[in-house]
Write a structure and sequence with these properties.
- About 75% of the residues lie in helices and about 0% in strands.
- The protein is mainly α.
- It is elongated, with a radius of gyration of 16 Å.
Length: about 80
């Protein structure tokens, strides 16, 4: 499961960086694989699935969320 978590985390980072570049008119995925290509769509689907996976499993894998921090009330 650690390998799946690491792959998902890397894909989420790639997606975030691509969105940041998109704000400046660049789309790295489309530049590498071609706009609208099947491979770029696969990358987008993998990034989206990774984000959902991280969202669902975050509390189990995050040391800060799973540790004592989650049991203390927030100020």
């Amino acid at each position: 499961m650690k390998a799946l978590h690491m792959v998902a985390w890397i894909l989420v980072i790639i997606g975030g960086l691509n969105w940041g570049l998109h704000a400046f008119g660049y789309n790295l995925v489309d530049m590498i694989f071609g706009a609208g290509s099947a491979l770029s769509k696969v990358v987008y689907v993998l990034v989206a699935l990774s984000a959902v996976y991280e969202l669902v499993t975050h509390k189990q894998t995050c040391k800060m969320c799973a540790g004592e921090m989650s049991s203390k009330p927030m100020m």
